[in-house]
Design brief:
Layout lengths: L2 H23 L4 H13 L1 H13 L3 H6 L4 H11 L9 H16 L20 H14 L3 H7 L3 H8 L11 E3 L2 E2 L10 H21 L6 H9 L7 H8 L7 H15 L8 H12 L1
């Protein structure tokens, strides 16, 4: 098997072990684990763990019961984030009332998990991303089934294509502060592809593997259809003369960097050994 495919499958197997642990914690509820994983992706680097904590603090059966009401979905996420304590405008008052109603009806724990705004561009503010997460679950009542049954990257991209924050956020980035620039806050294709790479495909791989279905080749095809990411790790590989077209290449080398370069395992790495040998001969 080619280096890229072999490396990526190793990454998927490692990720699969993490997903198995989550499935044990949440009683083999794949839908709940998908929700937690997507929340992690919506949080990006700064709020990934915080968003996952927020998602895990909600009994998914509660979230599932209210998913037809987008206002309640937002209210639940915003309330747990501690943003509705002092409403500054009529819409915030609506979210606050809905959160108090849900809190009493479902006997929710009095828990506050505050996302961070520091070092984030406004389109990535947690307010926007949590609203988009609510919209995703509002639009797709059978999200898990759609993801599992998708056969191509185009089908997966279509699921996320029309996801956007609610109308309030067209002229807001934060609560009570009107932005002079009015624009729908949609999810970009690049952001969607990152979610697919980091959350959707590993769970899809794990699910089919435990159904005893041969899925490796099909999963690798998804990676071949998504463009390579852009980040500092990929830039490092490019400086060594490597060229990237697909996420199959980029994902495999990101994994290789973390599992070999970061722990300085150069002597047991064919790439590192070759570089060391060439430098020795210079």
């Amino acid at each position: 098997m080619h280096f890229y495919e072999e490396s990526l499958l190793k990454k998927l197997e490692e990720k699969s072990l993490q997903i198995e642990e989550d499935l044990k914690r949440f009683k083999n509820n794949y839908e709940a684990v998908l929700f937690h994983s997507l929340a992690y992706s919506f949080g990006l680097k700064v709020n990934a763990q915080i968003f996952k904590q927020i998602a895990e603090s909600i009994d998914f059966t509660v979230f599932n019961k209210i998913r037809q009401n987008k206002t309640q979905l937002e209210a639940l996420l915003f309330g747990i984030s501690g943003w509705l304590e002092k409403p500054e405008d009529p819409q915030m008052q609506i979210w606050k009332r809905e959160f108090e109603f849900l809190h009493a009806k479902f006997e929710l724990p009095s828990l506050i998990i505050r996302p961070k705004f520091l070092r984030l561009r406004p389109p990535n503010f947690p307010t926007i991303r949590l609203s988009q997460l609510a919209d995703l679950y509002h639009q797709h009542q059978n999200l898990f089934s759609k993801i599992i049954n998708s056969k191509t990257t185009a089908e997966l991209l279509e699921i996320f294509k029309h996801i956007k924050a609610s109308e309030y956020w067209d002229n807001h980035f934060n609560f009570g502060k009107i932005s002079p620039a009015e624009q729908e806050k949609t999810v970009t294709k690049e952001f969607t592809e990152l979610m697919i790479l980091n959350s959707v495909l590993p769970l899809k791989y794990t699910y089919h593997k435990y159904q005893n279905e041969e899925i490796a080749d099909e999963i690798l095809d998804f990676y071949r259809e998504i463009s390579a990411e852009k980040n500092s790790v990929i830039d490092g590989w490019k400086n060594l003369g490597l060229k990237f077209k697909t996420s199959l290449q980029s994902q495999s080398l990101i994994y290789h960097f973390k599992s070999n370069c970061t722990p300085k395992n150069c002597l047991n790495c064919s790439i590192g050994f070759k570089i060391l040998k060439e430098n020795k001969n210079v």
